[in-house]
Amino acid sequence: MTGDQGPPRARGLATWTTRRWLRVGVATALVVLALLGAAGAWVLGRTASLSEELVDTRSPALTTSFRLESALLNQETGIRGYGLTGTPEFLTPYQKGLAEEKEFTTRLQELLRGDRASLADLEAVRIAVEAWQERIARPIAASPGGEPSPLTAERAAEGRTAFDGVRAAMLAQQERLRTDRAEAREDLLATMTLRNWLFVTIGAVIVLLAILVFEGLRRGITTPLEQLGADARTIAGGDFGHPITSTGPADLRHLSGEIDFMRRRLVRELAFTEEARQRLNAQAADLQRSNAELEQFAYVASHDLQEPLRKISSFTQLLQRRYGGQLDAKADQYIDYAVDGANRMQTLINDLLDFSRVGRVHHAHQDVDLDKVLKRTLSSLDVSIEEAGAVITSDPLPTIAADPTQMGMLWQNLIANAVKFRRPDTAPEIHVTATREDVLWRFTVTDNGIGIDPEYAEKVFVIFQRLHTKDTYTGSGIGLAMCKKIVEFQGGTIAVDPDHRDGTRITFTLAPEPPQGPVASVLPEATRAGAEPQP
Hints:
The longest helix is centred in the middle third of the chain and has 81 residues, at 156-236. The radius of gyration is 62 Å and the shape is rod-shaped. The strands form two sheets. The protein has a five-stranded mixed sheet. Strands 1-3 form a two-stranded antiparallel sheet. The chain is α+β, with helices and mostly antiparallel strands. Strand 6 (494-496) and strand 7 form a beta hairpin. Helix 2 runs antiparallel to helix 6. The protein has helices at residues 6-14, 18-85, 91-111, 116-142, 150-154, 156-236, 250-323, 329-357, 370-380, 382-388, 404-420, 479-489, 525-531, and strands at 366-369, 391-394, 399-402, 429-437, 440-447, 494-496, 504-510. The protein contains 13 helices and seven strands. Mean pLDDT is 80; it is low at 1-6 and 518-535.
């Protein structure tokens, strides 16, 4: 039975938590300290009691006994002298001895209260004194003075015998008082020795408890936490295969198990993430290759289409000049359609060629003063601006690191659109602003034109998407798509401000430095959410 009790007890201790260990340890320490404190208090009380008894009772009682003996000797001397000479002066020490006898007897009764043996000795002394006084002292003291008392000679032998009895009683009393005082002194010394050893034991127990507490905290809390921290730092350093060692009380082992479970789950998630990243990298590489091929195809296609289109445009224009008015109206209309289509195709291909060059051909980054770029853009659009009577103002614009050709194309498309999409009979008013937002610059181009419905706020940035027919407003539908590509290539975003009602406000951001690696916006998510309105 004894051998079978070990494992369950061990398993029971293994389930103890840190709180339980602390409770049991603190309770045990408090019980031990309480017992030692009670023992110390008892020893201190015992020492104080013995000291008080020795100082206040035993020593004063022995001293008073000696004084009582001296008072009795004064009485005997005085009576003997008076009896032999009859001189009244010898009665003075006798009378003084009587007063002192009474005083010291009363004092001894008070000091020896409760001590029956000592009181019995005091009673024996009193009886012996009373017998001597009755037979010797009082009769001689009552004799007339002036002559020796005849009782002195008659009762000399009886007087010596009676006073020897007094001396014997006093000696017995003093011997008992000496013995009691010696015993009290020995008890006090023994108690003080016990007190000293007890205090040494209390100090040793306190030191032992401190050592046990320190060692318990080290083994049960500090070492397991240090081990857990070391394992966590190892894992944080990249060794996700490193297991968490479970040590210490049950709750710390449970915590280690939870962290190890989280580590294993993290390993699985990292493996899945790594696999997804590899697939994403492969897809990104395929997409990059496909985009490069598409851009190359667009460039080659638009470049190779230039010559056939020039021929078509040239010959249709020759037909128009040579045979215009010589054929019927239908033929003239068909020739006009052919010339117009060839011209629009030429414009479309040129725009597509410019679009394909963004980020591929024009990528010479340098410090660009956007104020100067805007002025050059307004100068190139001077004719259309003057015809429309447009008023264009701007805040001071910053200098950023960018491709100057791209920045020129950006301002040209935005300003040209603001001038083109104006209200009838209303002169365009266009204002350009620039403000710093964290690491980005935010620009706005605001006009008082016809505006853009919120449902088309995203559609206008898609290539070849038009909101009006070519008869109403000319263009290929590629301008804002090119603006978006330029802005994103510069690490920003572009959108239509949905809160602006009187006209159109295009807002976009540009980074002071071009982004490294694949083109991606550096705009924070919260800012991007505000800058890219949903339709």
